Amino acid sequence: MDLSISEATWLQSLGPRSRELLHQVGDVAAECAKRADEHDRAGTFPGEDFDDLAAAGLNAATVPREHGGLGLGPLNGDTLTWWLMTKELAKADLSLGRCWEGHTNSLVLLHALASEQQQERWFDGIVHREQKWVAWSGEPQARKPGEGARFGTSITAVEGGWVLDGTKAFATGATGADWALLLVNTAGPGGARHADAPPEGLLLLACDLSDPTVTVDESWWDPIGMRATASHVVEFDRTFLPEANLVGAPGAYLHQGWQSAFTPHYAASFLGAAEGAFDYALEYLARQNKTADPYVQQRAGSMKVNIDTSHLWLAHVARLWDSGHRAGAQRAGNSARHLVEHLALETVDHCVRACGARSLVRPSPVERILRDLTFYARHDNDDHVLATIGRAALGETHDSSFFKP
Fold first, then answer.
1. φ, ψ for residue 404, nearest 5 deg
2. CA-atom Rg of the chain in angstroms
3. What is the pLDDT of residues 170-203, one digit of tens each?
């Protein structure tokens, strides 16, 4: 695995196990990068990439060691290694990084909220059968042009469980995942992000996606970027979800603020995209004999400072999670998510300006990075993120999970 100057510096600050894991994931990512253009053009889920991750023993990254996993993440005291693994995959393909985020975030939720019996059941499938997980909440109530109906689910309690009807949009990994953690609301459509119902009405239910009542509509997902996330519309037609698949107490996801644990994880992916553009720029500028140009030097300097700053923020937030400073980690995580978005977008812009229009001609990875990062950064409304940071600083009531005004 070839390392950029920035990457080599950060690897040296980590322990030997973390360095070895990052070398492993870097080797896998190098192969994934070769397939990124193909998956982007076709809009297909990067299943071969997940096969390679599983073959390397990396797919159970946030599963506890006692269940056969690598034992990374905030509940295991090693958050930074996990986020840097995500960064490596996002550097190869931001869509892959997003899919990996969803998978490993789901395993954190199972560790945090599932019963011991549930963990034994589901972690075994991840460790020994290479099962892929996702977590879906998206039920946007605003329609796009031409849509005749809103998205959303309704759930009805029946003997032994619940029956789910309706649709979820932005369902990342819809054509590649085996299991989904569904955030559904007893008050009706809205999931978690788009619902205003009391938190106690939010259920987290595990769904076996091989159920024939679960179908995928692949016609809706045709975006400018993040195409390979396969974030299609998923339809549920009287899907039965047994009581044994209820994960945690109703409302626990909101009451315990678990979304805020994943907010800085987005920043790790943003950083991966930025580092991919930086590495491209260093190689291209050297090959074109442009490194003596003072304006190019300024662009390169800005990119290097942005990437180092982003690493420092991720390391800071990770330490807060690992040391149990949850409130501080939530506040710092929102700041990191906001700042790294801007630093990453700026870094890609510096790359394009330094390297010129040829960097945006396929099959240059920068063309895909620019589209993917611009699109993915809209996952949250950054105006609301920044306002939430301000409300927290001013002592005002604020929503650290979904940044609602």
1. -70, 140
2. 21
3. 999 999 999 999 999 999 888 887 777 788 999 9
